[in-house]
Specification:
By secondary structure, this protein is mainly alpha-helical. 38% of the residues lie in helices and 4% in strands. It has a single domain, classed as Winged helix-like DNA-binding domain superfamily/Winged helix DNA-binding domain (Arc Repressor Mutant, subunit A), CATH 1.10.10.10.
Length: 97
């Protein structure tokens, strides 16, 4: 993946407000050529100790991706006031933009 595209993804990611989430696909559409899959790749390759709000990015439909950090992600989102319905989905009112 080109460095310029990675930079676009991380720039959009940094803009997600506290208490809101967005999807991999939404971030991809805000760039010049990324795909939802490539957004996931950028997240997986972020350096240790970064301060980007990776946990505010969820799958379409408002569900968390199945990964090793899902429990931490859920806790962080709840700490920001985001709620989950009985099926584990985040209601549309929490989505940005």
């Amino acid at each position: 993946m080109k460095e310029a595209l990675k930079e676009q993804v991380t720039t959009v990611m940094a803009r997600i407000p506290e208490g809101r989430v967005t999807t991999y696909g939404t971030i991809a559409r805000m760039t010049e050529g990324a795909t939802a899959r490539s957004v996931g790749y950028v997240l997986r390759t972020l350096p240790a100790g970064h301060d980007l709000p990776w946990f505010r990015i969820v799958r379409s439909g408002g569900v968390l991706a199945d990964h090793g950090g899902a429990d931490d992600q859920r806790r962080r989102l709840q700490d920001e006031g985001i709620v989950f319905d009985e099926r584990g989905r985040i209601p549309a009112r929490f989505f940005w933009p």
